[in-house]
What we know:
Blueprint: H1 2-29, E1 70-72, E2 75-77, H2 80-97, H3 100-114, E3 118-120, E4 123-125, E5 132-133, E6 141-142, H4 149-166, H5 169-181, E7 192-194, E8 207-209, H6 221-238, H7 241-261, H8 279-296, H9 299-311
Antiparallel strand pairs: 1-2, 3-4, 5-6, 7-8
Helix pairs in contact: 2-3, 2-4, 4-5, 4-6, 6-7, 6-8, 8-9
Amino acid sequence: MHKISCVVIVVFIMLLLAGCYTNKQTEADAVKDYGFKLRKLPYDSLYHQFIKVSTAYDVSPTDSNRVQVFEWKGTKHYHPVQLAHRSLDLLSDYRLTTDAKYLNRAVKSAETILSKAVRYNKSIYFPYTFDYNVLQKPELALKQPWYSGMAQGMLLSTFCRLYYVTHEKRYKAVADSILNSLAEFGTPYAPVFISEADSLGVGKGYYWIDEYPHPTKIYVLNGSIIGAMGLYDHWRVFGDKKSKRLLSRELTTIKDHVPLYRNVKDLSSYDLKYREKFANYHQIHIELMQNCYDITGDSYFLDMKRQLEADVKKP
């Protein structure tokens, strides 16, 4: 009798484990992924690598260390996306000139925003320290601290390129911790999510990098793609399977949803909920379609770029 009981218990445990494994696999398989093959671009062809020296070295206002600060309603803050932009600008300038002053300022800017990061599990997140109404809409209020997928991705690019340029091992550890944040769902800080089908036309089971992680999803296009460029940088520098997998899933999301942003013979929509239109963001969307084509070789993105160009022809 004792032996029979033991056998029953063992079989039950095996079935339980098998069930857990099956659920895990089903959850993973439910995320849409076309398995994009990536092309390793030369450094000078990367997103945010320019052909002319920028004005980033002389920006204002700054703190006492010449690191840019963001003024908001009478207070000063270190703005994660802004400092990512400046750091990448300065790294671009260093690439063009080999003048160490640009690299030193890039390091100082990146180290400053890193000093404000918070750690959760194996991830680090860069907080916004001011309240913000997305698109100036009170119903889209974000209370500080809040965390942006665009910021996480851009700072992932920043620390990957810092590692590439300096070979400082600590920057790889930082980059890996940022990468982890783009694979954590349901945390208090999560800047990514897997979508459910909704009335905006978004499909179920897609991986989204979320520029503005509000309970009301608005699906900002440029922020999601720019955030994904950090995944590309991580894969390019470290050859990491995790960053490649996440990037392929994000590219799948973009490929299946970018037509929703198009307005025939008009500016493309900034987002899917309010469908705001801005001429500068339409141009950014065109450039990002080129970026998606460059890293994948998928002609779909090039076709979409041409359609967006034809919708609003330059005077």
